[in-house]
Task: structure prediction
Amino acid sequence: MANYDKIAIFYNTPFIQFYYNRVHKKCLLFLKRFIKNNFKILDVACASGIFLSKLRKADQTLDLSGMDESSKMIKLASRKFPKEKFLVGQAEKLPFPNGSLDMVTVLDAFYYFLGKEQFIFECSRTIKEGGYLFLTVPVYDSLLQQSLINLAKAVSKLALFYNTERNSKHWSFTNIKNVVEKSKFKLVRSEISFGQRIAIFQKK
Result:
């Protein structure tokens, strides 16, 4: 995602993180009932690693890794959180052995993946039986999401977040659910909060 190389320099600014802080808080509360001590978790499209750092604060026993296509984001994450593991890579090619992960998380980035079905296959391959896939995706018809999109278009730098070509490939949650459940997962819980659909699937 080349656009994220361009925004890395100001990604951690309070204006941008105001939105993500709200989403992260909700996600941590949501995940509290599913994450267990010593879970091995991969955060895909981890950006500057902020959500990963919040998982660490919530549970010091976790084995955490963050991955992003943007080398600049990974450099930023590694510099800010040097004790965590970060790597550059594509969502469609997870560099982990079969059945080695307890959970894969993707926050507000799945709609950018061009190979969505391949990513889901990779999750099915790398997540162990009983493990989880956690996703947040925008509810595009919500007033909040439309307001955020309009604001981003009005501010030239923030417009980098909204790549028209990639957003045109957005899947409905029904489509996501159908494809994920065909890949040995079942939907465990789903809710809508702050313009986001939050969902967790468990591998059968």
The helical segments are 2-7, 14-31, 50-58, 71-80, 116-126, 143-154, 164-167, 173-181. Strands lie at 40-44, 63-68, 85-88, 101-107, 127-138, 185-193, 196-203. Residues 2-203 form a domain with the Rossmann fold fold (CATH 3.40.50.150). The first strand starts at residue 40 and ends at 44.
